[in-house]
Structure prediction request, 98 residues.
Amino acid sequence: MKGDCYIAVDCGASVNSERVRAQMEGACVMGVGIATQSELPGAPREIRVHIIPGGFAKPLGGVGEPGVPPVPPALCNAIFGATGKRIRRLPIRDQLKA
Prediction:
């Protein structure tokens, strides 16, 4: 995969931002794999994770897997923006062939 991926995550208070960043990077690779081939593909050239600042006023939680579900629809929207072709089912696989 050649492109970059930008992720913004609002996970509340971030105790270990590098752990959050790593979780979102892994979620991106997994989400792209599910969307394209139902397996792990090559990873984006660069994954940029932006952690939205949160306070400690609310109970701490975890990041979990919230990064995976939005990746396939975001990828399909990017394909539509670049090609005008709507992808309506996953995996994408051969749907872009003429």
Q: What stands out?
A: Residues 17-36 form the longest helix (20 residues). DSSP finds two helices and two strands in the chain.
